[in-house]
Amino acid sequence: MRKTEMVELGGHWRRIVLTRLVAIGLLVSVATVPIADARLRRYRWEVKYEYKSPDCYNKLVITINGQSPGPTIEAQQNDTVVVEVKNSLLMENVAIHWHGIRQVGRVCFCLNYS
């Protein structure tokens, strides 16, 4: 084998070893990055009547914090969500239910307060 062939072969193996070391380093760094900590997420909602114009005609609608439809709750896995609701409706109860939540091993219930 000529000297130039040995140099090329050595460079090839150096690249392979370097590539593998970089890959291992990336795996170790990803494995040691902590997963996002669980957080407590608090929301305060006031349910009340307001005049809105969703279809260009001013009418009385039920809003949550002035929004209709109501606000979005954002949370990640393992977060605890607390929603405090103030019912400012005059003659109606408020019932809350959730869409898009899969709760494995938990009792699903709705709270109904006046």
What does this 3D model show about the protein?
By secondary structure, this protein is of the alpha+beta class. It is built from 1 helix and 5 strands. The strands form 2 sheets. It has a 3-stranded mixed sheet, with no helix packed on it. Strands 4-5 form a two-stranded antiparallel ribbon. Strand 1 and strand 2 form a beta hairpin. The protein is elongated, with a radius of gyration of 29 Å.
Distance between the amino and carboxyl termini: 90 Å
Radius of gyration: 29 Å
Which strand-content bin applies to the residues?
25-35%
Element string (H = helix, E = strand) = HEEEEE
Give the low-confidence spans. 3-7, 110-114
Question: What average pLDDT do the residues reach?
Answer: 75
Short description:
The chain has 114 residues and is an alpha+beta fold. 26% of the residues lie in helices and 27% in strands. 0% of the residues are buried.
List keywords for this structure.
disordered C terminus, 27% strand, 114 residues
Question: Topology of this protein?
Answer:
Blueprint: H1 3-32, E1 40-52, E2 59-64, E3 80-87, E4 94-95, E5 112-113
Parallel strand pairs: 1-3
Antiparallel strand pairs: 1-2, 4-5
